[in-house]
Amino acid sequence: MISMKISYFINIFVLGLTAFLIAACSATTKKVAADDISQSIKLKYATGFTINKANNYYLVKILTPYKGAKEPLTYVFYDKTNPPPKIPADAYIKTPISSIVCTSTTHIPLLEYLGETAALTGFPTLDYISSAKVRARIDANKVTELGMDEAINIEKLMELNPDVVMGYSLTGDFGQFNQIAEAGIPVVLNAEYLEQHPLGRAEWIKLAGILFDKIEKADSVFNVIEKQYLTIRKLVLETNTRPTVMSGIVYGDSWYLPGGKNYAAKILKEAGFTYLWAQDTSSAFLPLSFEAVYEQANQADYWIGIGSFDSREALAKTDSRYQEFRPFQLHKIYSYNKRIGAKGGSEYLELGYLRPDIILQDLVKIGHPNLLPDYELYFYFQLP
To answer: Which of 90, 223, 359, 383 is the most buried (most CB within 10 A)?
Structure first.
């Protein structure tokens, strides 16, 4: 689930693994002999995990489980018809799994694109799910709402007894998930949000592919996404036009916008924009004063990413100074919330990690409309 405690446009989200899983093995048990591994599976863009394949199991290392993590996590995924291999790991997961509890809406497309939505049995807050297929299961009472963060209902989750819980963490504070691990339900951490390349985030579908014993299917899905992304990127490289772009809005006392090394800044550059904070070296979101943003961006060509606002009028009502920016005056403000689920969830925040190719097409259509004359925006829309 995407945490509602973080501003919507930041779109990076929290839950996690367990302290039990991290502490369960000593430093020596985290080392796996090279002889146990027969094949390393190359990942093209993702840098946050590795996959090694042996005869009857996969060994997956999550290299940076959360920002600032000092130790990796090691998982063994083994064929359920065999006993677990006698190698050290933080968790052992029998595959293929048939049931899963996910904790982020970004996990939902991984199931859908692998044809495994029927495996989802629980989720923190059901209203935030946009997928039509999963919503049909929710309407049929086949997915249990578990509650979010500290309020997650451990007893309900235990009753579901899923084969695995897919979690995530921003801080390494794993909260109540230690109870789940101690009860014998394995938890696998998905750290896709830490990837800096858009295709790196999409490549985490291969982790889900291992869970469902559909690694070839996961490869196929990713290859299609990659091909589409690179095709659009090639179009951008053939033009010299680079319109300037600003982003973000004021929350509280500060204007929050992506740092120059942030994922959002990266994909804006890929789409052929000149992001006005591209020289910044931060990958986080920058809290700046209104005056500092105005000085830098008041003459920007475009304004992309304005939280949940759906009109210029609504934007101006919160702060009349927004009207002083050139994109406001020229009607060149864009939101990514064109597609909202049946209960209010954002499809962009759900599907965007897996489909950066769609995001890239949208951004190219906005900044370089002549490159994609017949394309219609999917995630984004122009504020009226």
So the answer is: 90
Q: Which CATH architecture has domain 238-382?
A: 3-Layer(aba) Sandwich (3.40)
How far apart, in whole angstroms, are the C-alpha atoms of residue 264 and residue 208? Answer: 24
The CATH 3.40.50.1980 domain(s) of the chain lie at 8-226, 238-382
Q: 172's torsion region: left (phi>0), alpha (psi -120 to 50) or beta? A: left
Q: Please give the Cα distance from 196 to 100 (Å, whole number).
A: 27
Q: Are 338 and 309 in contact (CB under 8 A)?
A: no
Domain 8-226: CATH class, spelled out: alpha beta
The per-residue pLDDT for range 46-75, each reduced to its tens digit, is 999 999 998 889 999 999 988 888 899 999
The angle at the Cα of 314, spanning 309 to 316, to the nearest 5 degrees, equals 110
Location of structure tokens 């500092």: 292
Q: Is 288 helix (H, G, I), strand (E, B) or coil?
A: strand
The model's pLDDT over 267-294, given as tens digits with 9 standing for 90+, comes to 999 999 999 999 999 888 999 999 999 9
Contact 19, 178 (CB under 8 A): yes
CA separation for the pair 256, 325 (Å, rounded): 16
- Give the integer Cα–Cα distance in Å for 49 and 41: 11
Of 116, 119, 190, 123, nearest in space to 156 by CA: 123
Q: Are strands 254-258 and 302-304 parallel, antiparallel or unpaired?
A: unpaired
Q: Around 284, how many Cα atoms within 13 Å sit in the side-chain half-sphere?
A: 6
- pLDDT value, residue 283: 85
Sequence-distant contacts of 308-311: CB under 8 A, at least 24 apart = 308/8, 308/9, 308/335, 308/337, 309/249, 309/335, 309/383, 310/335, 310/337, 310/383, 311/383, 311/384
CA distance 233 to 10: 24
Containing 293, the helix (H) or strand (E) segment is: helix 290-297
Write down the residue that tokens 């996690």 correspond to: 16
The answer to whether 185 and 25 are in contact (CB under 8 A) is: no
Tokens of 99: 């049931």
User: Residue 268: what pLDDT?
Assistant: 96
CA distance 168 to 17: 6
331 has a pLDDT exceeding 50: yes
